[in-house]
Amino acid sequence: MSQTSPTTAENIADSPGLGAPAQPTPAFSPLYQQIKGLILQSLQAGEWKPGEAIPSEMELAARFRVSQGTVRKAIDELAAENLVVRRQGKGTFVATHSEQHVQYRFLRLMPDSGDLDSEGPAQRNILECKRVRAPADVARALALRSGDAVLQVRRVLSFGGVPTILEDLWLPGQSFKGLTATQMAQYQGPTYAMFEVDFGVRMVRAVENIRAITPDAAQCELLQVPAGMPLLSVERVAYTYNDIPMELRRGLYRTDSHHYRNELN
Amino acid sequence: MSQTSPTTAENIADSPGLGAPAQPTPAFSPLYQQIKGLILQSLQAGEWKPGEAIPSEMELAARFRVSQGTVRKAIDELAAENLVVRRQGKGTFVATHSEQHVQYRFLRLMPDSGDLDSEGPAQRNILECKRVRAPADVARALALRSGDAVLQVRRVLSFGGVPTILEDLWLPGQSFKGLTATQMAQYQGPTYAMFEVDFGVRMVRAVENIRAITPDAAQCELLQVPAGMPLLSVERVAYTYNDIPMELRRGLYRTDSHHYRNELN
DNA sequence: CAGTGGTCTAGACCACACT
DNA sequence: GTGTGGTCTAGACCACTGC
């Protein structure tokens, strides 16, 4: 394929036999972007599970009838977005939360000295896990209808025995059928890893809105914190593939011995 | 150069005649990394000023005796780090804060609806601008010795007439000789742009530590906020090329009508 | 039109991991 | 050794900008 058609509005033929609904490709985009899109579809469709290797660059090049370099550029972007991890000599793997290397994928809280791992594993205390009808704000964040079933989990995270985070999670009832408090409590490793393994839901990005607030009496009690101590309110929406919101999380962080760290580039 | 020496520990000859102290290149790295390093040196040395175009990929390839593709990969990384901006058909330009496209380069505060620009230009009220001897904590953050001269600026930023941010800036006295309150007040556009234009200091990245705090009486007064309202404490260290810290900034943000927004990938 | 960055290819070789 | 990702090259053509 020596630079034949690609520049004008034609796109790669939808790979047949995959059962994908062949959604119409809107406009022109570079070949490697189209390849990226196709690989993305396979990731979403679960053709390769988190932690598994995807086909080699040569195989993909053959499948899509393009050169290896083009596939490479597509995978480069997927790797830059943390959807995929390259390992020299071994292959390219679907990213997963189930690896201790990336313990706290989205948690930006750090002890004032050292890092979270130096404080040992977090203790998770599940206070509640119930099925409720989504309030308006929760429904809006999760792109549901008000009143739809959602699971609500309330828990306290402690580091080194000190209660540090109080958070509520809301999850679409549809996707998280059967989630129980014991399941939340007993699973070893990141909560997002459990979502992958038990529910096939993989979070790929998140957005946080942060404020300073004064906790109410109940919140102070749960965090064993004196009344009036200001806390960090962190509202996070986490998304799966395709920008579908799959979790709303409202956390209160103690910031007297920890801080929220953000690196700006 | 058909793949001759590059893989073993040899590195590119230091480009002669540039006056650079030819600091010894430590170990092996891919060719494109070495090229990236050389371009970086030129950026640091000020061979091309912010906003200016750097030589074309072909020119750089000729200068460094490598292929255009190798230069391209080097520039790709520099662009990913926001040190350089590519513009198709025009060239590659040294990144600058002096463009309204990137108004608030490091400020993550957003109004609860809309964005900062929708609130019109921020009003800056300079309260103080004085030369002081660096306290221990400031000195540590700026990699100075305790007692070294630093400039301290205190100001209030208002959006739509509402005081929203109270912040103190500390700058190394050495690099910011002659900075005055009127200069801070009169300059149109981003403060970081003024640093570039007037002092030749370009900030390329920053790290922020965030906490919830209760302001003292003086702070409440300055922000015209009731006593006891919790505020976001944002401590930022901004770095120039080579990871040299050049600014410490301690800000207090109102988060009753705004929030700190962070996107996690 | 010429010059710039952007895309695509094809082939070579290197570094690494496994067997 | 074989297979994987990683680097490097050389050459072609496309898309955008400005003269």
What key phrases describe this protein's structure?
homodimer, DNA-binding, Chorismate lyase, 11 strands, alpha+beta, 265 residues, three-stranded antiparallel β-sheet, Arc Repressor Mutant, subunit A, disordered N terminus, 7 helices
What does this structure look like?
The structure is a homodimer of 265-residue chains. Chain A is of the alpha+beta class and 265 residues long. The first copy, chain A, folds into 2 domains: 1-95, Orthogonal Bundle (Arc Repressor Mutant, subunit A), CATH 1.10.10; 112-259, Chorismate lyase. Helix content of chain A is 24%, strand content 30%. Chain A has 7 helices and 11 strands. The first copy, chain A, has helices at 31-45, 57-64, 68-80, 136-141, 181-186, 191-199, 217-223; strands at 53-54, 84-87, 91-94, 109-111, 123-133, 149-159, 162-172, 205-213, 231-239, 245-253, 258-264. In chain A, the strands form 3 sheets. Chain A has a 6-stranded antiparallel beta sheet. In chain A, a hairpin with a 3-residue loop joins strand 2 (84-87) and strand 3. In chain A, helix 1 (31-45) crosses helix 3 and helix 2 (57-64) crosses helix 3. The radius of gyration of chain A is 22 Å and the shape is globular. Residues 1-26 of chain A have low confidence and may be disordered. The A-B interface holds A 80-82, 106, 108, 205-214, 228, 230-233, 236, 253, 255-256, 259-265 and B 80-82, 106, 108, 205-214, 228, 230-233, 236, 253, 255-256, 259-265. Strand 11 (258-264) of chain A pairs antiparallel with strand 8 of chain B, so a sheet runs across the interface. Chain A binds a DNA duplex (19 and 19 nucleotides) through helix 3.
